[in-house]
């Protein structure tokens, strides 16, 4: 008479065999499919409109895909800095990004820099109308680069900072000002008499603190979360430019997703975009209040006459940049934003 199997095999082995059979029957346990991971890398703090939008996207995707998709958000240039992150996206090392529209030049897509033309947008509505028309057209230019544009996220108007008051155009003379990689922003700083310096966002605080650059433009939510206002004695509310992001995805990855998961990504993009765009203005206002309350920088708002002085100095940039972004692109932007040349 042979002994029963259970007396011959160690208990632990029997247990794992039983678990494996159960797993086979239910499709669970060791045989469950690992989720598809979307790495979303960005350069700002989690507590910003973009950071919060990315977090909302993650929550929506994971809930709607019932765990079949996992979104890993990497803020604060943890994975990649500005230029590297676009290369990483093309290589598929990350699947999604949300760079500012001022950062597509190194990729060979210069037209997005039209969004950097000084004083192009009179308000958020003018900006949004331009992304929904011209912006959507420009997304097509990313496809040959292996990138698909999903949505535009707004982050409001640029202000300026330095260690001296910036009220008049003459105040910029000789100042080294950090800019994003856009050639339009380069031309803008030169038209003001400053010396533009392209620099990754992650290096900004240190560059200001050590005096490698004298000042910068940016939005309050970034000034506040990066603490740059602590090392800039003066801040000017000028609203001369606009900051916005393109939420983008590696095209091969997106096209390769099962159709139902692609639909989850699409619907989550839509709702996260509504959310990010809804909070941007308030988040920036609150950041501005906190910067003022800190007492570390003197905040000055340009008078209408000073705004006009800046506009007149900067309008040459629109003409000069026709060669860079294209006359037709500028005309489309004018039409969509309702821009009229100042007198
Ligand atoms: C900057 O580099 O100043 C911004 O593009 C950072 C950001 O993503 O808001």
Write the layout of secondary structure elements.
Elements: H1 5-8, H2 11-26, E1 36-41, H3 49-64, E2 69-74, H4 82-91, E3 96-97, H5 124-139, E4 147-157, E5 159-162, E6 176-179, H6 183-191, E7 195-198, H7 204-210, E8 215-218, H8 220-226, E9 234-237, E10 242-250, H9 251-256, H10 259-294, E11 298-301, H11 304-320, H12 322-325, H13 327-337
Parallel strand pairs: 1-2, 1-3, 6-7, 6-8, 9-11
Antiparallel strand pairs: 3-10, 4-10, 5-8, 5-9
Helix pairs in contact: 3-10, 5-13, 6-11, 8-10
Overview of this protein structure:
With 343 residues, this protein is of the alpha/beta class. It has 13 helices and eleven strands. Residues 43-44, 100, 180, 201, 218, 222, 243 line the site of (2S)-2-hydroxybutanedioic acid.
Major sheet: order of its strands? 7-6-8-5-9-11
First-last Cα distance = 107 Å
**Largest sheet descriptor:** 6 strands, mixed
Whole-number radius of gyration?
25 Å
Helix content: 40-55%
**Small-molecule binders:** (2S)-2-hydroxybutanedioic acid
Output the helix-strand order.
HHEHEHEHEEEHEHEHEEHHEHHH
The fraction of residues assigned to DSSP E strands is 15-25%
Low-pLDDT stretches: 1-30
Number of helices, where a helix is a run of at least 4 consecutive DSSP H or I residues: 13
Apparent shape: globular
Structural class: alpha/beta
Number of strands: 11
Mean pLDDT over the full residue set: 92
């Amino acid at each position: 008479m042979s002994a029963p199997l259970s007396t011959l095999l160690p208990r632990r082995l029997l247990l794992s065999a039983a678990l494996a059979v159960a797993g086979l029957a239910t499709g669970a346990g060791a045989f469950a499919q690992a989720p598809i991971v979307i790495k979303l890398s960005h350069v700002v703090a989690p507590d910003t409109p973009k950071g919060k939008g990315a977090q909302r996207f993650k929550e929506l995707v994971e809930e709607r895909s019932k765990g079949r998709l996992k979104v890993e958000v990497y803020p604060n240039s943890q994975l990649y800095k500005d230029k590297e992150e676009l290369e990483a996206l093309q290589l598929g090392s990350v699947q999604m990004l949300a760079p500012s529209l001022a950062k597509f030049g190194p990729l060979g897509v210069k037209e997005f820099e039209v969004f950097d033309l000084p004083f192009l947008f009179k308000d958020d509505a003018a900006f949004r109308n331009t992304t929904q028309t011209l912006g959507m057209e420009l997304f097509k230019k990313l496809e040959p680069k292996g990138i698909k544009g999903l949505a535009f996220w707004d982050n409001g108007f640029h202000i300026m900072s330095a260690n001296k008051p910036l009220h008049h155009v003459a105040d910029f003379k000789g100042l080294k000002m950090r800019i994003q990689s856009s050639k339009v922003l380069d031309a803008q700083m030169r038209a003001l008499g400053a010396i533009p310096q392209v620099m990754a966002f992650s290096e900004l605080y240190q560059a200001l603190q050590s005096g490698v650059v004298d000042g910068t433009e940016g939005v309050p939510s970034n000034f506040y979360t990066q603490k740059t206002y602590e090392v800039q004695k003066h801040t000017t509310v000028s609203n001369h430019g606009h900051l916005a992001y393109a939420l983008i995805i590696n095209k091969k990855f997106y096209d390769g997703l099962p159709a139902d998961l692609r639909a989850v990504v699409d619907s989550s993009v839509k709702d996260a975009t509504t959310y990010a765009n809804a909070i941007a203005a308030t988040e920036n206002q609150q950041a501005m209040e906190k910067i003022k309350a800190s007492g570390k920088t003197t905040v000055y708002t340009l008078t209408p006459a000073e705004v006009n002085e800046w506009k007149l100095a900067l309008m040459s940039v629109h003409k000069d940049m026709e060669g860079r972004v294209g006359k037709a692109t500028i005309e489309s932007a004018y039409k969509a934003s309702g821009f009229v040349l100042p007198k």
